# Entry
Amino acid sequence: MRFADAVEFALTSLRKRRLRTFLTASGVMIGIGALVSMISFGKGMQKNVTAAFESSDLFNTVMVMPGGPGGPSEDPDERGAVAKEAARKDAVLDDAAVAEIAKIPGVRSAYPDISFPALVSLEGEEEFRLIQVVPAAVAGSKAVGVTWGRPYASDDEEGVIVSRILVRRLGTEDPAAAVGKTLRVTSVTFDLGRILSLGLDGFLGGKGLPVSQEAHDFPILGVIDTKPFGGGPSPMQNDVLIAPGPAGRIKRLPITSIWDLFRMRGGRLGYSAVSVKLGSLADLETVKTRVREMGFTTFALADQFEEITKAFYFMDMILAAVGMIAIVVAALGIVNTMVMSILERFREIGVMKAVGAGDGDIRRIFFFESGAIGLAGGVSGCVLGWATSLLINRIVNFYLARQGVPFIDYFAFPFWLFLGAVGFSLLVSLVSGIYPARRASRVDPVVALRHD
Amino acid sequence: MSADQSLIVETRSLSRTYRVGDVRVAALADVTLAVPEGRFVAVTGASGSGKSTLLNLLGGLDTPSAGTIEVGGALVSAMDREALARYRRFVAGMIFQSFNLVAARTALENVELPLIFAGVDKKERRRRAAELLDKVGLAHRAAHRPPELSGGEQQRVAVARALANGPRLLLADEPTGNLDSRTSREIVGLLAGLNRESRLTVIMVSHEEALVREYAQEIVRLKDGRIVAAEGEA
# Structure
């Protein structure tokens, strides 16, 4: 028996019992519809959260820190990697290391995370702040996101970007008004000369500290707004950003924390951290591995996100399980319909066998019949699930809009969801058809032909 | 005996026992039969004598409890289910008292059925089915469904269907049981014609003595599942 003939047999018999076919397929449709809308809701949630993270540009950033014991951010993954310990001991995060990291394939840019303490003042108001050195390429990116004014155009442009909070602390309420004003940055440095001139006695006697001060004036070019993920390992953790060029002209204490004093190796002091921007998240693992081989530790927010992703898988599973209940009911409906069909067509099965149908032919006819129910139910179920979620989305957004929440698509329909749902429906219907098809194929033609 | 090329059907000590509750009922017992190719054989007997059981066994619809069946040199009694299906499809065509046509399909489509299971493509089987309907004189009724046809016409469709894959054996189980005497004569005449013209072996179960005497070359009489007499030209 040819494939096309078996399909024709199945469709003919389904057409003959239109109402029952329709009802059985409706059961499948509802099950698949429930499953599709449940999963699309889960996928929608995941998409929305992921999009929120990705728009902050934090995913593409890897923080590189000197490795070794005592470091503030030792990666727990590295515990027990004793073999690399020796290499790591000497690894210094200096300009050479930064240049090497920048050459790793997949790295878009790598820049040292330099900050230094300084006194900043605006129109007489003073605050003590860490000034962070950020290249122009990063300052102009959405990772920083200048809201008022503009970022500095080149790494040599004289000017600073400040946070809205700092502007307010310094007495200017309107951040837009702060743009163009002058910020005075007063840095503090050790002055070995002063230690000598004071003499050890004087120094120990508290007559003065071996430090010197140096003041520089910079125009405020831009103001950044407060960000939701400001506390993360991002470039905007400090309130004052400055380009590398002017920063180099300021004498400063090259420390960000007390740890830096202990991190000095072989007389060389490296950077406390280096920000590495990736072109694509796909390169994350290879870049991390390469950097670790160089003897540094890494921290990437993307790693943390894997945990969130796991939570989403769990949510998807629960949603799918709810949908599965409907599918199981639909599958029982198919079995019921098919068994009924065998009883009704008992004699016909006998006739087909008498004229030469093999067990396989009969099996195939019934198998295709339940498959056709599953296919019809699956396709219409996708449409139902899609329509339902559109409706729910409308209603939810209508109510949330009153509370000022912008329009959000709470459902996502990736292409694979439709394909998968139809495929799954077909699979379920075929599995449901196994028993009826077997039973039909075992019909004894002598009994069937005697049957009235 | 299989050396004798002219024999098409050969049964030896053929028995079929049914279990009804705890009781064993022998529908057929120790039937040994030899039918030469091209013969028109009638099987007669009272109802319950085992006629239909014998025909179902010869047609490969049923399997014997004991004994052997050989058709055209192949041991039918030893065939598995799949081989039996092929045997029914290609070697033994059957017609029945109640015609057993598929009501939802036209006359032409009913004739096509065995061709479908033989995997013949649509165009070819349409052509062959139309040819067969023409042969049984029903070309003009090809598009009608069984309920629209008379009993005689339905049985003609059944004959055409039985011939679809060119069988060597035509088995007819009380083909005239539901027909009036005039139509009965036409149907048996049709079978006799096929037997004569294409040397098709016909085994027909019937208890219409007059028809049997007129057309059959050999009559096998059954009683309580056993052959009581075989008459006719040897």
In short: The radius of gyration of chain A is 35 Å.
